[in-house]
Amino acid sequence: MAVKSFQKWIEAYNADNTHPTKQPFFIHQATSYAYKNAETQRGVKKIVKPTISGLVFLQGTVKSIQKFLSQYFPQYHLVNDRCHGRPASIRDTIMQPFMNVLKAHPEQVTLLNAPIEKFAKDHVKLRVLTGPFKDYEGYIIRINRNRQLVFDFAGRAVALRGVHQEDFEVAE
After folding, report:
1. Is the pTM of this model over 0.70?
2. DSSP secondary structure string, 62-101?
């Protein structure tokens, strides 16, 4: 519920021309389908909801986003990177391909609850050489009978399906 209200508020903020700058944001949403009437199993409705409750990506520097949140949303805060203990920051070169794949094929991305260290154990770190995730580094792990690239994304482990046909090299 908090993500929906935040999304409505920030869309209104960006539409308002009195603010000097707009605040770009991104919310990872998953799509599922369910019967309109479960008893008769007739009709299908599309359900779109945030993948991780309360997770919104904001674009900008850490200082500018902290200032924006403290000014307009003092109850919200930036998520800390588990490894470094400071607010998580994702470079635009990593975030843009991630957002593009999420918009085109959201079913290929899975946000995992386990830390990346769990997946790094007994695996070789690889670098992707081709495709939309070129230069990403991670581990090829079998999840649900499918080989997926698991990589660190601001302190969270993220798994990508459909990368097994890409070219890789061992990352030193």
Report:
1. no
2. HHHHHHHHHHH-TT--PPBPTTTSSB----HHHHHHHHHH
User: In the numeric block, which tokens belong to residue 101?
Assistant: 């794949």
Count of CA atoms in the C-beta half-sphere (13 A) of 93: 3
CA distance 58 to 36: 34
- Report the DSSP beta bridge partners of residue 29: 50
One pLDDT digit (tens) per residue for the chain, 172 residues = 577 888 888 898 889 888 878 888 888 777 778 888 888 888 898 887 776 666 788 888 889 999 988 988 888 888 887 777 788 888 887 787 777 777 777 778 887 877 788 888 888 999 888 887 788 888 988 888 888 888 887 767 888 888 877 888 898 7
Contact between 115 and 83 under an 8 Å Cβ cutoff? The reply is no
Q: Which 3 state secondary structure label does DSSP give 53?
A: coil
- Cα 48 to Cα 35: distance, rounded to the nearest angstrom: 14
Q: Whole-angstrom Cα distance, residue 157 to residue 8?
A: 28
For 5, counting Cβ atoms within 10 Å of its Cβ (0-12 exposed, 13-18 middle, 19+ buried), the class is exposed
With contact defined as beta carbons under 8 Å apart, do 111 and 156 qualify?
Answer: yes
Residues in the chain: 172
Neighbours of 158 (CB within 10 A): 20
